[in-house]
Amino acid sequence: MNKNSIAIILAAGKGTRMRSDLPKPIMPFKSKPIIQHIIESFRNAGVSDINLIVGYGAEQVKDKIGNSVTYYTQAEQQGTAHAVKQVPESILKNAATVFVFVGDSPLINADTIKKLEQHHITTGASCTFLTASFPIDLPYARVIKNAEGKLIACIEEKNANKEQLKVKELLTSHFVFKGEDLVTYLAEIKPDKDNKELYLTDIIGIMLAKGLKVETLAIDNYKELVGLNTPEDIKWAEDASTGSA
To answer: What is the rounded distance in angstroms from the CA atom of residue 186 to the CA atom of residue 22?
Structure first.
């Protein structure tokens, strides 16, 4: 693991579908807060500089997770790219690699994080992200590749046509970037035309259009990448982690 790696974990959402007063990041999963699992995976992968973007219930999250991570507050929910922008540019630029992960995928393990960074460094990519082939229907962006298997686009489900919707390789918002490139192209993301939010996934199209290298790393176990949004999701993931799902 590169000594100059940092992790940004997005954990500002309320998680309304959890049907709980607790902020989603600290909902219990296998006797720990959901987000604690991914924090520990980063530590086990050798990343010690861990930054949480908090918002709803920020003080509750801080009280539960403690002072072993750095916190940045996204006061208004204006999208995932806006969340990343809460980290000072100087910190991002000085990092050789910057992981940006959503915080609701507790099954991701340290080996997967290590493999992601290794692939990113070996290929010299500006951005690399995890994918998997999903046998279940989930509202994630489709990973579009050409006949040679080269990434050409990522299309959000709501914007995908019938053929693109058949694609089973999905993007789950687990990225690693070159720090300087992240800062440069984060600034070029435009607000969504419908809700005005800034989406980090848009950086992929921007980088590809600029001729930068964007890589994917497909993993075998799609369950690692599933985000948990409901109590039923938590039950499914707990069963999956014990081999019964």
So the answer is: 31
Report phi then psi at 153, rounded to 5. -170, 160
Q: Residue 11 corresponds to which tokens in the numbers above?
A: 């954990």
C-beta separation of 153 from 207 below 8 A: no
CB of 117 closer than 8 Å to CB of 110: no
Nearest of 171, 199, 201, 206 to residue 185 by alpha carbon: 206
- DSSP-derived 3-state class of residue 187: coil
Domain residue limits, the chain: 5-241
- Give the distance from CA 63 to its chain's centroid: 23
pTM: 0.95
Residue type, 190: K
Q: Which tens digits make up the pLDDT trace of 165-188?
A: 999 999 999 999 999 999 999 999
CA distance 154 to 140: 10
Region 12-22: mean pLDDT is: 89
Q: Is CATH 3.20.20.105 the right assignment for the domain spanning 5-241?
A: no
